[in-house]
Specification:
Shape: globular
Radius of gyration: 23 Å
Number of helices: 13
Oligomer: single chain
Distance between the termini: 40 Å
Order of helices and strands: HHHEHHHEHEHEEEHEHEEEEEHEHEEEH
Largest sheet: 7 strands, mixed
C-alpha cells in the first residue's frame, strides 16, 4: 500500500519533484504505520480461487464490534432495509453526471428531491447537489463568505478538528486567513469572538452540536457575527434537527454538515456526503450544481441543471471552487432515508439519541474518575474524564467484551449514544467501567 502508485517510474519521480517530497512513503506519511501493508506475501503459483480464499482468511481477522459508543463525526444509526433496496438498483449505482437533461431525468429528479429535503431539514432557501463530505462542505463555505476586502474567516475551536484542518488546507491554497476562536467550558467563547470580528472578517463557522457534543448558543453567536457585517455559517448534525431549531431559525446564512447519519453506513470511513444550503441571497455563491424543476414544451414536469458553476469547464484559474462533481449516490441514499423516516421518524430518532445519551451520561458520571468534563446541555455526545488521563486501558477492556468505546479526546473520553444502543448495553458499559477503576 505504501509503495504502490499507478503510474510509470518516470511519472512517479516527476510527481515527487513537483511536490518537494523524497519518496512515496513520505507522500503517505500521514497514514498511520500500523495500518499500512507493504505486501501480502502471497505464495507463488496460487490460483485465483486459492488467492480469494487466502485473502478472505486475512479479512476474517478484522474486528467488527457488536456495540458502538463512538461518534466524533461518524455515527451508528439504524438504516431501514428499503434504503439499500432502492439505492442498490443498477440504474442508480451506475448513473453518471447529468450533462444531458433529456436522458438524465431520473438522476436529476433524485438530486432535486435531495436538495428539497435538505432545505426542509435546515430551513434554508436553496441547497446544492452535495459535495464530498462535511469537512469539505465547511471549507467550501469559506469561499462563499470571502470578499475583496473581507478575506479572514473565523471558526470555533469547539468544531471538529478534522473540519478545522480541512478549512486550513483550503485557506492555505487560496491565500486566505483562518483564525480559530477559543472555546471556554467546551463552547465558543462569545467575548473572544466579538473581539476577533473586525472589518476584515468575512464569516464565522460554529458546529452545532459541537465536537464535544455541547449545544452552542447559536442565536447569540449569529447576532454578533451579523452585527460585524460578516456571514454566519452553521455546521449541523442533520439528525439533531429533528428536535432542535434549524440553522435558518438561528440566523445562519449558510448551513453545512456531514450527511452520513442519513442512511449511510459507517463503511470504515466513507464514502460520505457533504450537504450545503444557504439563503437566497447567497444562492449564486454555492459551489457545484443545483438541479431545478421546470416544464417541457408539452407542459410536463421536468428537471434541469438550473445553476452550474463553470469552474469545471472554463476559467478555472478564476474559480472560487473546484468542485466538479457531487456525491449523487450518497445524496440519493440520504433522500431515500429521509423519505422512509419522514419528519416524525427523524424526530423520534433524535429524541431517542437525546434520552439514551443522557441516561448513559448519568450512569457513567456516577463512576469515580468518569465525571462529566463540561456541564452544558448536550445532544447525543458527551465528554467525560478518564482515570489517569489515559483511555487506552479502558477502551481495551471494552474491546474484549465486543464494545467499541468512546473516542480519546484531550485526556478524556468522548462518548456517543444513538437509538442503536439499548439500556442493557449502557448498563453493561457502566459495569465494565466500574470494574476497571
Amino acid at each position: 500500500m505504501s509503495s504502490y502508485i499507478p503510474c510509470s517510474p518516470s511519472e512517479r519521480e516527476q510527481m515527487l519533484r513537483e511536490t518537494g517530497l523524497k519518496s512515496v512513503d513520505e507522500l503517505f506519511s500521514q497514514i498511520p504505520g500500523e495500518i499500512k501493508i507493504k505486501q501480502l506475501n502471497l505464495p507463488e503459483g496460487m490460483s485465483e480461487l486459492e488467492v480469494g480464499r487466502y485473502v478472505s482468511r486475512i479479512a476474517g481477522k478484522n474486528v467488527r464490534f457488536g456495540t458502538i459508543f463512538r461518534g466524533a463525526g461518524a455515527y451508528n444509526h439504524y438504516i431501514p432495509s428499503i434504503v439499500k433496496s432502492v439505492t442498490g438498483k443498477e440504474e442508480f449505482v451506475t448513473a453518471y453526471t447529468p450533462y444531458q437533461a433529456e436522458i438524465s431525468q431520473g438522476i436529476l429528479q433524485s438530486i432535486f428531491e435531495f436538495q428539497t429535503m435538505i432545505c426542509r431539514l435546515t430551513g434554508m432557501d436553496v441547497s446544492n447537489a452535495s459535495v464530498y463530505d462535511g469537512a469539505s462542505a465547511a471549507a467550501e463555505a469559506v469561499a462563499m463568505c470571502v470578499e475583496r476586502k473581507r478575506t479572514k474567516m473565523l471558526v470555533s475551536a469547539a468544531a471538529d478538528p478534522a473540519t478545522i484542518r480541512t478549512m486550513q488546507t483550503y485557506c492555505n491554497g487560496s491565500d486566505r486567513q483562518l483564525l480559530v476562536v477559543p472555546a471556554r467550558d467546551g463552547v465558543t467563547a462569545t467575548e473572544a469572538l466579538e473581539n476577533m470580528l473586525d472589518d476584515a472578517a468575512a464569516g464565522f463557522l460554529v458546529q452545532q452540536p459541537n465536537y464535544y457534543g455541547l449545544i452552542e448558543d447559536a442565536e447569540t453567536l449569529g447576532q454578533l457575527v451579523h452585527a460585524a457585517g460578516a456571514k454566519y455559517v452553521m455546521s449541523v448534525n442533520p439528525i439533531s434537527l429533528g428536535i432542535m431549531k434549524t440553522p435558518a431559525e438561528q440566523g445562519a446564512d449558510i448551513a453545512v454538515g456531514e450527511g452520513q447519519p442519513l442512511g449511510i453506513p459507517l463503511s470504515f470511513g466513507g464514502p460520505y456526503l457533504g450537504f450545503m444550503a444557504s439563503t437566497t441571497a447567497m444562492m449564486r455563491r454555492l459551489p457545484g450544481r443545483i438541479a431545478g424543476e421546470t416544464t417541457d414544451v408539452d407542459g410536463r414536469r421536468a428537471f434541469v441543471l438550473t445553476l452550474q458553476a463553470r469552474e469545471q469547464h472554463i476559467r478555472r484559474e478564476k474559480a472560487s471552487s473546484n468542485v466538479c462533481s457531487n456525491q449523487a449516490l450518497c445524496a440519493m441514499t440520504a433522500a431515500v432515508y429521509l423519505a422512509a423516516m419522514g419528519p416524525e421518524g427523524i424526530r423520534r430518532v433524535a429524541a431517542q439519541c437525546l434520552s439514551k445519551a443522557h441516561y448513559a451520561a448519568s450512569k457513567i458520571s456516577e463512576i469515580p474518575g468518569f465525571g462529566l468534563r463540561y456541564k452544558g446541555e448536550f445532544f447525543h455526545e458527551f465528554l467525560t474524564e478518564c482515570p489517569g488521563g489515559d483511555a487506552s486501558a479502558v477502551l481495551a477492556a471494552l474491546e474484549k467484551e465486543g464494545i467499541l468505546g468512546g473516542y480519546p479526546v484531550e485526556g478524556g473520553i468522548l462518548w456517543c449514544v444513538t437509538e442503536m444502543n439499548t439500556k442493557e448495553e449502557i448498563d453493561k458499559l457502566a459495569k465494565i467501567l466500574l470494574t476497571e477503576i
